[in-house]
Amino acid sequence: MTALALERISAAYGEQRVLGPLTLHVARGEKVALVGHSGAGKSTLLSLLYDKRRRDIALLPQDLGLVQTLSVFHNVYMGRLAAHSTLYNLANLIRPLPKEVHRVRQVLETLDMVDKLWSPAGELSGGQRQRTAIARALNQPASVLLADEPVSALDGPRAESVMQALTQHFETSVIALHDVELALRHSTRIVGIRDGGIALDRASERLSTGDLRFLYDVSAPAA
Ligand SMILES: Nc1ncnc2c1ncn2[C@@H]1O[C@H](COP(=O)(O)OP(=O)(O)OP(=O)(O)O)[C@@H](O)[C@H]1O
């Protein structure tokens, strides 16, 4: 069954077309890694996927979208805003309910962030801010994850464990990654973007890092 679908979609900024027309279908259960050089159009493709179907999606954007003046608790809680009434959300903003604090604390435990529960997001390191946004996504009641470079600020072992947690937690995922080895290890399918289109679309188990090199060498002919 298809979880995400784009049919002959294009994207432009002003007069300049940066993507498409391209077609992409993602089946339920697939773990897709989007790869390609900087500026190839990975973030734009994620935006197109998000705009097409906003429900049941956890979005983890490259700029994280945290509210700097609010605590880690409040930022992570925001992942579930849509699941509650405005009154319930307001009450939690003013005086967090123990049940919600417990839930957020549990998510933060897996990311080794419990000690920052009440710290304002603006006072965190880059890696801690990224883990807060990851926790917010994990706290969201969604089966699909769209993520843009979700582990770029994390060290090697933590990047591995977070990638594992994200791909296990969400039934379906499309994750843009610069690190091709990480992409190959944590995906079932690689979609490579080049020259505004899909230049490669293959099962990860049938690829090695060498097969992806042409995506980054803009002087080389497309495969
Ligand atoms: N707001 C914008 N206005 C104008 N051009 C933009 C805008 N956002 C992106 N672009 C252009 O669109 C193209 C694709 O950008 P996009 O951010 O999707 O690439 P990317 O593959 O995600 O890059 P990166 O890996 O560096 O994040 C680039 O040429 C970029 O300059």
UniProtKB/TrEMBL annotation:
UniProt xrefs under Pfam families: ABC_tran (PF00005)
Matching Gene3D superfamilies: P-loop containing nucleotide triphosphate hydrolases (3.40.50.300)
Molecular functions (GO terms): ATP binding
Domain ABC transporter: 4-220
Keyword terms, alphabetized: ATP-binding, Nucleotide-binding, Translocase, Transport
Function noted in UniProt: Part of the ABC transporter complex HmuTUV involved in hemin import. Responsible for energy coupling to the transport system.
Identification of the protein by name: Phosphonate ABC transporter ATP-binding protein
Protein's organism: Modicisalibacter luteus
